[in-house]
Each structure stands twice: as structure tokens, then as C-alpha cells.
Automatic annotation (TrEMBL):
Its main location: cytoplasm. The lineage of its organism: Bacteria, Bacillati, Bacillota, Erysipelotrichia, Erysipelotrichales. The gene is accA. This is Acetyl-coenzyme A carboxylase carboxyl transferase subunit alpha. It comes from Massilimicrobiota timonensis. Acetyl-CoA carboxylase is a heterohexamer composed of biotin carboxyl carrier protein (AccB), biotin carboxylase (AccC) and two subunits each of ACCase subunit alpha (AccA) and ACCase subunit beta (AccD). GO terms for cellular component: acetyl-CoA carboxylase complex. It is found in: Cytoplasm. InterPro entries: Acetyl_CoA_COase_a_su (IPR001095), ClpP/crotonase-like_dom_sf (IPR029045), COA_CT_C (IPR011763).
Length: 306
């Protein structure tokens, strides 16, 4: 059975358990649920993790901003075209330290997702990120980015307004920005749309998040001309957090509760909070020249074959 089939079966058993009045039946159903849950999540495939990363109940960037930062004040617009709701950016306090937060934001409802283009950013979104990053550099505020996108918005209007240039400018600016940058990959990290906010001194990734050059569906369609081979594509692409950690691209894996972080967001928030505290303390005490050199070397060694 697939992950989705097993999850549906678990929900059926949980609903049945909630309705029973018999203690013996309750205990038997609990054992079945525990056994099936353990069996389902013990050996997840790459495609299983893709499914978890895309789960509709999975927490969004707004949940992390609310849970990690105090007095967050959102800033809008790129000062050139408009405001892109797919990027939430602003200033907040992290344990009394002022920080700049830039997050790719999916919605929680259909209308919210339509307004945010399902987390796919337009050029004005990336330019808003650039504006806030330069502001952070001016006041030497550390930058925390949250990545959660299937890719940059592919509309004609986005291309007309310079989508590729906006992404390229993000890569250029973040590679040399003179303030610490930490990136947190929440769920999906797709192509250049995600890479634009991923040039950082530290990159951490949620256990069930994925990061790749394109979706498994796109990979299977382009490479094999066969949409049915998406599960095979997910394995070949090496897109899971464990694959990226093994390759040295990701610095830290944030463990998730069984079934995904939607089952215990507080646990995940506490883990990220501790990680950010530790790394910010190191980065804020690193000299500027050393900070930039280490960031440069971090990305230069990616993809090197021994």
C-alpha cells in the first residue's frame, strides 16, 4: 500500500476507535493504529517524502514566523512594481535580537493560495527580498529565510517583468551580503525559485522537506516522456533532506514527528529555535571577511567529485 492509502486507513481506524464504547475493541484498534503507523513511516521512500512535503495540513511559513519571532512587522513592496504576496518579509525579534525575515509563503485556503500563487514568487517578490536584504545589511541585522516553493511563478507577465534577472540578482547579492544569513527549507524547494533565497551561511532543512532542480513529475516527463515513473524519478533525483545532508549541501536536519511536522509543530519550532540561537551566536561573532570567505567556499565545494 502507498503512503496515502495507509494514511487513509489510519484515519478510518482512528474514526472507528473514537466511536467505540467497548474497551477491548478500543485497545485492539489502538494496537492496529500503532502497528500501521510504525509500518507506514519506518522506511519512507523518496516519493513518500514528496507526498509528506506537499501535505495540505503541513504548516506554512506564517506558522514559523508566528512561532519563532516576537513583534514581527511585515514590510511590503519592491518600490518598482508592486507587492508580491508569495513573499512575506519584515522585521522581528528573535530572543531580543532584531532580525530580518524573508519567507516564501503558501496559503492555507484556496483563496489564500491563489493570492500567493501557491508560494511561487513573481519578480517583485524577489526584488522585495533584495530590498529587505540590503536594509538588513545596512543595519547589520541577521537574515533568516524560509524556503517553500515549487518554483518561481512561470507566467508570461513574470517573464516580461524580468523573472530570471530578479533571481540572478538575488544569487549575486546574497552571495556577498555583509551580514549573516540562515536558510530554513520548510517543505518544497524547487529550482531557481528556491535557490534565490538559499544562498546562506547555514542551510537547515526539515526532515521531510525536498529540494530539487524540478519536480519528479517534470523530471519523468522530460527525461523519460513517461509521467507514470514519478516514484522512480524521485529516487533518482536524490531530493530528500538525507540525500542533501549526505552531499554536504545541507548543514542540519530538523527532525519531524511521525507523520510530519503538522502532528507536533511545537517540537519542530523548539528544534529550529535552538539551532538558530546556536548558529546566530557563532555567525554574529564572526568577522566580516571570514564570514564572506566561508560562505564562498561553502558553495564552491558543492558538486565537487572526489
Amino acid at each position: 500500500m502507498s503512503l496515502i492509502d495507509n494514511e487513509n486507513k489510519i484515519k478510518e481506524l482512528q474514526a472507528k476507535r473514537a466511536m467505540t464504547q467497548d474497551q477491548k475493541e478500543f485497545d485492539e484498534l489502538s494496537l492496529q493504529i500503532d502497528h500501521l503507523t510504525k509500518e507506514t513511516y519506518q522506511n519512507l521512500t523518496a516519493w513518500d517524502r514528496v507526498s509528506i512535503a506537499r501535505h495540505p495540513s503541513r504548516p506554512k511559513a506564517s506558522d514559523f514566523i508566528e512561532g519563532l519571532f516576537d513583534h514581527f512587522y511585515e514590510l511590503h513592496g519592491d518600490r518598482r512594481f508592486g507587492d508580491d504576496q508569495a513573499i512575506i518579509g519584515g522585521i522581528g525579534y528573535f530572543h531580543s535580537m532584531p532580525v530580518t525575515v524573508i519567507a516564501q509563503a503558501k496559503g492555507k485556503t484556496l483563496q489564500e493560495n491563489l493570492d500567493r500563487h501557491f508560494g511561487m514568487c513573481n519578480p517583485e517578490g524577489y526584488r522585495k527580498a533584495l530590498r529587505l536584504a540590503r536594509q538588513a545589511e545596512k543595519f547589520h541585522r541577521p537574515i533568516i529565510t524560509f524556503v517553500d516553493t515549487a518554483g518561481a511563478y512561470p507566467g508570461i507577465e513574470a517573464e516580461e517583468r524580468g523573472q530570471a534577472q530578479a533571481i540572478a540578482e538575488c544569487l549575486y547579492v546574497f552571495s556577498d551580503i555583509k551580514t549573516p544569513v540562515i536558510c530554513v527549507v520548510l517543505s518544497e524547494g524547487g529550482s531557481g525559485g528556491a535557490l534565490a533565497l538559499s544562498v546562506a551561511d547555514r542551510i537547515c532543512m526539515l526532515e521531510n522537506a525536498i529540494y530539487s532542480v524540478l519536480s519528479p513529475e517534470g523530471f519523468a516527463s522530460i527525461l523519460w516522456k513517461d509521467d507514470s515513473r514519478v516514484q522512480e524519478a524521485a529516487e533518482v533525483m536524490k531530493l530528500t533532506s538525507y540525500d542533501l545532508y549526505e552531499k554536504g549541501i545541507v548543514d542540519y536536519l530538523v527532525k519531524e514527528p511521525t507523520g510530519g511536522m503538522q502532528n507536533d509543530l511545537k517540537l519542530v519550532l523548539d528544534n529550529i529555535d535552538q539551532y538558530l540561537q546556536k548558529e546566530l551566536d557563532i555567525l554574529m561573532h564572526t568577522k566580516e571577511k571570514e564570514l564572506l570567505e566561508k560562505r564562498y567556499q561553502k558553495f564552491r565545494k558543492m558538486g565537487v567529485m572526489s
